[in-house]
Amino acid sequence: MKYFLLFFTFINLTQGQKFIPLDEDTLEYISEANYNLYANKKLVFSSITSTDSVTRLPKNVLFDSISFSKLNYKETGLKKENLGELVRLKKIVYELEDVIISNSKNNQISIGEKSRFIKKYSNSIKKDTVYGLLFHKSDIKNKQIEGLLFYVEKVKYKTTYKIKFYAANENGNIIIGQSLELAEILFESPILTLETKTKNKVEVNLEEYNFNTENHNVFVCLELQAYYDENNEVMVPSFKESTKLKFQLSNFNNYYAKTIDFYTKEKSDSMININGMIKHDFATVFFRKTT
Fold it and tell me: What is the chain's Cα-based Rg?
């Protein structure tokens, strides 16, 4: 028996213009930016953008211009007629020290993300490129890539894999959806090994390779090579016994993955910005309020 979950939404027709603030370079969602509304150069309204949804301006406030400000971003002003659904803010502060490229406060890469619907998730390492993280060139410019960190569930069978860094291009935006186009390989590691009983954090030192990202957006992924049994013979385990990456909490819109068609069960040709899709659904559907 198949079950269908239905969501009913109600649109508040009394609400005014709506928009989502994004980082101009990375197109990542920016929360809690200050904004001011002006009429004839006089301040008529002040507030802060939403933490997790579309910001809607009050319809009963008349204004002709709006300004945005946030720490580490350039103050931006727009005329009312130029205010669209996407407001791009320019970051003006960058860290240029040599660090491991990062999507966390600990300056480490964690492959994967944590869905809002579940507390824990993991997925097996794949032989082809199915999922990974995207790092924008503005975030890694002038930085030395020293290593990579990821997490695994307890390894049942010896597993060999490679780390690959692809040049990549994003298409679309958060409103209409984003897909990823992979270009040339910028770096491919030698064959690496996860030994039996390896568990949780895995750190790989990449400093010796001293490769250059060449001013590209960089997509990082792990690709399975083979499994080996206790006799060191190549084998194929069941999904339950395969080596799985743990998906870690992520507040960034940089986790891309191929999707499976609900009806045909076929895998998509391109990878989709999963984080961005979830955030957009929450912003435009689940957080709509009734009057």
Answer: 22
Q: How far apart are CA 136 and CA 184, in angstroms?
A: 16
> Which pLDDT tens digit goes with each residue over 90-134?
887 544 333 344 444 445 555 555 544 444 678 899 998 999 889
Tell me the C-alpha to C-alpha distance, in Å, between residue 114 and each of 27, 28, 88, 121, 139.
20, 17, 26, 7, 22
Q: Cα(222)–Cα(141) distance, rounded to whole angstroms?
A: 22
Closest CA to 131 of 214, 278, 245: 245
Paired with 54 in beta bridges are none
Phi (first) and psi of residue 116, to 5 degrees = -75, -15
Is the CB of residue 194 less than 8 Å from the CB of residue 224? no
β-sheet bridge partners, residue 234: 228
Q: Mean pLDDT across the stretch 27-41?
A: 89
φ, ψ at 72 (rounded to 5°):
75, 10
178 contacts 133 by C-beta, under 8 angstroms: no
pTM over 0.85: no
Alpha-carbon distances of 172 from 175, 272, 273, 282, 285, rounded to whole Å:
8, 10, 10, 19, 20
